[in-house]
């Protein structure tokens, strides 16, 4: 067996068709997704969390107005109520703090954040999921994943000086692209694994998310033991390695000796070239940190490069250590002083600029970051060009003021890794008396989430909007900082729904019938997996979407919220329907179960057929009005 198979074999996992139903040992949430997760937990009437849950406050800590801090107070009160842990504002980025404090080799972690696979650096199967899936897992229900293939990546040889873990994952991104990991668990094995510390393995697993991988995994070995021991957690170590004759669905071999420093060009993490090819590109900003590269090792190597030097005058160098424990160790070992003396600006231990919260680059300038994503506009500046590279390349470039091959620096400094970190758990609040403690605290920006309604026996409805092909979730509900502040306020998000598709839609909202349908072309709901693009229209009566085809995740989100996705059996019928026609569906539940729904267009007096292809579980969810109702009735 490979490591992935061994982890599944040691857990309660059942196979339902092409899906695996998995019960995670641990769950993590972060504040940007967490408020909605806990509002859903509340709506389902869950009184106590089943798995071990840690709620992190790490994304939006800038507190520019009351709404942000209101969210934090709500999360803290919910943690006490549910009997779960809370990592307080200022304690660090969820994936780094979780790695330090909770990750266990051989376990399963589910998180409402796409970089949850960082845990694979210490041999734990980490998977990122949508907020509702996570809320349901907190209730003790399984998490369903499409059965993944296992891609075995054999590492041979060892990295040359100045070549890093970041270069390994950038190499894979270049080779496999941002779609290359979809439906796969990427498992690393071979002699080269021994040459990498957990810090480095975590960087690699973190950015497996950029390939769309379900998860990434390293074995748990003596390096994992040394890492856990340095954190006073040796009791959590267990050996975990693939059998000598383990099989993989696919295999790739990387000879680490042949790699060189790499860099991702704007605006995609797989737009990778050698640093030599980018050399000389002028920079305005360099940002070091994020859940990808904010470990003590990353901070120490940057400090060793900058020691007794000053950054170039055209550079703003911002650094976010991954956790308070890392920051504390940096202050003990002198790493912090070396960075400050060189001109670095030390920010709070938080996601910050990675999420476009603060430190937006100047208009039209280049920013070099050690982060994992460089999509257009993510930095907060629409016309900024963001490059991604290792901390080593970033530090050397900070001295020259332009992208520079780190090998120019001369000999690569050696850094000492701490054998023992100080105890640091006082910023993680543990439930004192178990679940049920205190009142739930809610500021005015926090509103309940909408619940779907069960499928009626017959349905009369009208179309509220007809749209063309390739409508994205951004078209349905825009993203951006303004909308981020409304994540826990569905009613106030309503005026923005469909605003890009129909500028007048907000004027019609008050006149919409109780239930209505949306008529769409091909690939409806493409783009980001944002669940609000379903929740918000559902809250004002969207009960059906009849489309030529759907983006996969959007279709599943519709079902999760009790909105029925139907596809035209004959695309010509899409043309025949007018935007405000009225319809009737008879014996709706029976028709859904036969996977074919016949609809009568009352306005134009004709019938048309639609297909659904639902699994048994999906039919059950739709009949009950979505996943929250399903769980609510079950518990
Ligand atoms: Fe935070 Fe950026 Fe990671 S937003 S969790 S540091 S991808």
UniProtKB/TrEMBL annotation:
Family: Belongs to the aconitase/IPM isomerase family.
Domain Aconitase A/isopropylmalate dehydratase small subunit swivel: 514-569
Keyword Iron appears in the UniProt entry: yes
Source organism phylogeny: Bacteria, Bacillati, Bacillota, Clostridia, Eubacteriales
Cofactor(s) named in the record: [4Fe-4S] cluster
Name the UniProt record assigns to this protein: Aconitate hydratase
Naturally occurring in which organism (per UniProt): Formimonas warabiya
Keywords tagged on the record: Iron, Iron-sulfur, Metal-binding
A Pfam family annotated for this UniProt entry: Aconitase_C
Entry's Gene Ontology molecular function annotations: 4 iron, 4 sulfur cluster binding; aconitate hydratase activity; metal ion binding
Domain named Aconitase/3-isopropylmalate dehydratase large subunit alpha/beta/alpha: residues: 5-278
One cellular-component annotation, GO: cytosol
NCBIfam families: acon_putative (TIGR01342), PRK07229.1 (NF005558)
GO biological process: tricarboxylic acid cycle
Subunit comment: Monomer.
